[in-house]
Amino acid sequence: MMMLDNIRVLDFTQYLAGPTVTRLMAEMGAEIIKIEQGPGGDPCRQLPVSRDGRSGYFVQQNRGKKSLCLNLDKPEAPAIIKELVANVDIVVENFGPGVMQKRGLEYAALAEINPGIIMASVSAFGRNSPLAHKVGYDYIAQAFAGFMHMTGPRDGAPHPVGVGFADGSAGVHAFAGLGYALFHRKRTGHGQYLDISMVDCLFHMHDVNVQGPSITDGKFVPHRMGPHHELIFPAGIFKGPTGYIVVMALQLQWKNLCLALGRPELEHDPRYLDGLSRGQRRDELIPLVEDWMAGFNSNEEVIARLDECRVPCGPVLSPIDALAHPYFIERGTVRTVHDPILGELKLPGFPLRFSAQPEVPELFAPLLGEHNGEVLGQVLGYADERIASLAASGVLIQGVR
Amino acid sequence: MSASLNPRLLDGIRVLDFSQYVAGAGASRMMAELGAEIIKVEQTPVGDPSRLVPFIKDGRSGFFIQQNRGKQSLGIDLKQPRAKTIIHELVKHCDLVLENFGPGVMEKHGFDYPTLARLNPKLIMVSVSAFGRDSPLSHKTGYDLIAQGFSGYMHMTGPRDGAPHPVGLSFADANAAVHAFAAIGYALYHRECTGAGQYLDLSMIDCMFHLHEISLQAHSVSGGTYVPHRMGSHHELVCPGGAYKGPTGYMVIMALQPQWERVCRALQKPEWLDDPRFATNEARARNQQVLIPLIEAWLATFSRNEEALAVLEEHRVPCAPVLSPVDAVGHDYFVQRGTIRTTHDPVIGDVRVPGFPFKFSAQPDLPDFEAPLFGEHNTAILRRVLGYTDEKIKELAATGVLVSKDR
Known about the structure:
The complex is a heterodimer.
Chain A: E1 8-11, H1 17-27, E2 31-37, E3 50-51, E4 54-55, H2 56-62, E5 65-70, H3 76-85, E6 90-93, H4 99-102, H5 107-113, E7 118-123, H6 138-144, H7 165-188, E8 192-197, H8 198-203, H9 211-215, E9 235-240, E10 243-248, H10 251-260, H11 275-280, H12 282-294, H13 299-308, E11 313-315, H14 326-331, E12 334-339, E13 343-348, H15 372-378, H16 384-392
Helix pairs in contact in A: 1-7
Chain B: E1 14-17, H1 25-33, E2 37-43, E3 56-57, E4 60-61, H2 62-68, E5 71-76, H3 81-91, E6 96-99, H4 105-109, H5 113-119, E7 124-129, H6 144-150, H7 171-194, E8 198-203, H8 204-209, H9 215-221, E9 241-246, E10 249-254, H10 257-266, H11 281-286, H12 288-299, H13 305-314, E11 319-321, H14 332-337, E12 340-345, E13 349-354, H15 378-386, H16 390-398
Parallel strand pairs in B: 1-2, 1-6, 2-5, 6-7, 7-8
Antiparallel strand pairs in B: 3-4, 9-10, 10-11, 12-13
């Protein structure tokens, strides 16, 4: 029993933000029909790193999806898509501006075919916005939403998060929205349209930088702070003997840190009484902590001592460090999956732990057009001859990768 | 609090919300926007500790206001035995219990899932924690920065040859909240289909880690020759693809191969099209130490960033200003889309907060909400949900089981 048994999704997504949505739904048992446009299909099939013509990037985002590859310039293709629309619960897309309209696949048209349909669009600047015409990618959304401004060295250039977080997060938001839309449809029978923008999804994550300037009448000016927070201490990244360590302690944990450092007298030192005064004197406190850390042989020893004294801390791990780490392995946060061409590869695991669905299925990323016949046969009831003739006339396209 | 005339997606859903700070409280914040009734359980003496997070004006924290609009506060002393009884009675009348306490706290109070599920078998319960409730590190306390470090994000962020850097907002907390919110929607849907409740164990680390789109697979597929590391302010595989210094600040320019020709046209450098150093994305990425200064030299010919951005946009080159969160105030995009909003607080008046990120066509209007005072809704909740008499409620207040304040 899977959470999304019997839910069928028509998936026009490509690259990252859109495919994240259906990747998560596939793990929960939804049937995902990925519409790929001939000749090449989802452009991320070409993204490096590849081996034997197979992109690891594509594999990660598309496991468990069925590929239906169509030549959209053929007159039969739009008719097939519209027939499919009548037989699915959800449509997801993340095309550039105007593409769905140009094809007659905007929500109003789809809802005429299937009034209960739920549709989600994922874009950088929203479909209904003053900037809807603009093309945008991950970095562009990170810049526009104030993430870049807030990240990097204090006196240096703004920095992006080095993960496709704007894309990924927009995908997670669309996934979230679809869950509530399914719940709403279950209760009322009504479908709906969901317009997700990458910028909105990032912007609401500002916890201090919007209300702070507002309630201080502009006295608080948010800006990037480098590796250490300036309003509280400790809250930042320290150089340990074998790499970096994060230490973040609230007021009640300050005495624990003093104890760990072997400097219990600092707890009541008038210069360091609260987070703010410590933050102002962080230039004297950071070396004090780092000098103490330098007395250990390894980061692990430092962390063990901090753990013992109940100081919240953790290592700065590389994603590769996760591969052999007991947390990631026992929790399934790193998984080994199989690909028909690449063989075994390591991927991040499914992030949600539903007790109602303790197992995640074994899923494979499709070859281009691998499920042409299956989708048209099983979903639309096309006869084998008809499918063969669509393939022969180039409406259906198949690739070996 | 003004009621909306239109139905909302979560009408009739009641949440018993033990969450605090952002990772938990962010999830119920979004549910409140969709019309769920949120009963925020706040413990004596101060309630949600985020009530004390700076900045504070007239005793009200903007941080608290942003995360708790539309919630009802039940101020209670959980150390008293009768408090536990009240909570257990409320559980029977709720659809969801949400918590993000430190390790072991819910068990200590007798609020663990098996106990609560016996009281209400259809209950959905969600725990949000840094390292998960069922994991080798579940005993560890963790905050946003610790999750940013542990999940590989800090390692990937910052100057190429410098220290790892955090993202300057609590996005690991917020990201966990979004995942909890997502999971709850599907759990509600599942319960609507099957009648069954369930327990969800969310970790901030897991919610961050699955968004690594390149690191693991590229390392795997390349046989270990690709080693993920931070790249500075420019992507190492895409050029232009990063933060450029303009005359009045930074902007991002990002062009994939099909857009390179447009870049050359916008910059009036047709000769670049035939330049072998720049012919392919791969070549441009390899020669970015040459190309980036050339583009910045072009930007320097303008007097303001807006002028350069206008030329780039005219040629349909993907670009955007690097905005400060403060730049969003009054900006067309943020205002028209409701991405920034002004909310009202009963104590300190108007406060600007980020808007709700979801645009559901079935619920076009968002309710107008205020954040609660500590214990503001003690009487209303116990009367409405449990049918307590006013005398009983008064007595509970007099004996300190219920607590309230004017902030």
